[in-house]
Design brief:
Two copies of one chain form a homodimer. In chain A, a hairpin with a 5-residue loop joins strand 1 and strand 2. In chain A, the strands form three sheets. The first copy, chain A, has a six-stranded parallel beta sheet with strand order 7-6-5-8-9-10, with helices on both faces. A two-stranded antiparallel ribbon of chain A has the order 1-2. Helices cover 40% and strands 20% of the residues of chain A. The first copy, chain A, is globular. Chain A folds into two domains: 81 residues, Winged helix-like DNA-binding domain superfamily/Winged helix DNA-binding domain (Arc Repressor Mutant, subunit A); 114 residues, NAD(P)-binding Rossmann-like Domain (Rossmann fold, 3-Layer(aba) Sandwich), CATH 3.40.50.720. Chain A is α/β, with parallel strands linked by helices. The first copy, chain A, is built from nine helices and eleven strands. The interface between A and B is large, with 89 and 89 residues. Chain A binds a DNA duplex through helix 3.
DNA sequence: ATGTGTGAAGTGCTTCACAGCG
DNA sequence: CGCTGTGAAGCACTTCACACAT
């Protein structure tokens, strides 16, 4: 389920829906893939065929930001890749903290996907003194959650991942907000109240599983879900 | 981004959107919460206020399945909770396998959220002989992925969680499909091609993080995202 | 008096289909 | 000729607002 505000100004002054923004990330990944495969140029149709997308939608999404293709030809993979990275704000390094050094927090800290492509996990934070001072297998240090604000400000941390129990999540959100962090990815199975100026996304595994069950129970045929996060 | 078919028959013969289905899961969680707090009755307005929902939408969503409220009064928490569980197909136990016994797979296997409320993790599966025969900290056994089909059929497994590297995901999807599993939650950062009759949802952490960055970069105010999975 | 259930209105998202450009 | 970029059409989702039931 979604909540909250929806749109933001595009380069041209237009407004971009959240759905569009998520698709841009998907397109970026597809282009990464093509670039690795040595493909030099592509077209909206080819992308659509390869990755189960809609070619008109790709063109519409890109059109919000400018004209990046060549009529009759298509897109240059490298250029479009770079353009998307710029649109998405991925031209600089983004610092991330993970609050909650349990199994999930530790696993996320070591999860390779983050450390490439502009995200750096600065540290794990917990309130359990048995964990503080330790490290994840990958070497990410575990700090006292009371040090969060100081470290977040010092290292210019913009993003936090919440991997704490449901009961603790609300308090942790306050701490994270207090530390000046405004982008939050919540894995705790609770609905949190976002503070002003904060962007809060939830990854709720139980809701996802329940949704699969709903589909199976109702016995629909080939269906497919969100390639997002969501 | 979403893909694939969208809708399925409701109890009355109507058709239910995926967004509605996800919200039903959210409502269920809210009612669980209220029930634990000892609240006996509630109303769409109260739910909306407490959990940042929209009261009209709650009523609309429920209306697809019947009339569960009392005019002038509201809903009985326990009854509505039970009704939602039934609608969502959560009246029986659902068996789950996790493919990929790395950090993430292990963490998910031990993640408390699953083991309550009708989901049972039957086992972890991997191709690494160093991991096969072991167990997660929580005691979930790690099997050879080649045994997946046999075990899945024996234990009537309906759901699989993919926690394997991107490069392995496509092959694993084939194995899982072959084992007769039709509901799949994919954590690998790739776009998989769903097979016929399969429901495939992706939880893509990188897309989620990139989306947070997009919001921060464009500097919108209080916004909030998908309580899902996204 | 109060809150549901719901037609109707409003808003947003996706897809079509083609002009126009290379 | 092929493919982009885009207005227009189509479709889906959300919100409004009120009749009706209790």
């Amino acid at each position: 389920m979604k909540r909250g505000s929806k749109r933001r100004r595009a380069g041209r002054g237009a407004v971009i829906s959240d759905l569009t923004a998520q698709r841009l990330s998907v397109y970026l990944r597809c282009l990464d893939d093509l670039e690795k495969s040595g493909v030099a140029t592509t077209s909206s149709q080819r992308l659509a065929d390869l990755y189960q997308l809609n070619s008109a939608q790709i063109r519409k999404d890109l059109a919000h930001f400018g004209e990046f293709g060549v009529r009759g030809v298509g897109y240059t993979v490298i250029d479009l890749r770079r353009t998307l990275a710029r649109i998405l704000g991925l031209t600089r390094e983004w610092k991330v903290v993970i609050v909650g050094a349990g199994n999930l927090g530790m696993a996320l800290a070591d999860y390779g996907g983050f450390n490439r492509e502009g995200f750096t996990i600065v540290g794990l934070f917990d309130s359990d003194s048995a964990k503080i001072g330790g490290r994840s297998r990958g070497g990410v240090p575990v700090h006292d959650v009371r040090e969060l604000a100081a470290i977040a400000r010092r290292d210019q941390v913009s993003l936090a991942i919440l991997a704490v129990p449901a009961a603790a999540a609300d308090g942790v959100l306050a701490i994270v907000a207090e530390a000046g962090i405004r982008g939050i990815l919540n894995f705790a199975p609770v609905r949190l109240k976002p503070r002003a100026g904060m962007t809060l996304k939830a990854v709720d595994l139980k809701v996802q599983l329940e949704n699969l069950v709903f589909h199976l129970t109702r016995g629909d045929g080939a269906s497919a879900g969100r390639q997002s996060r969501r």
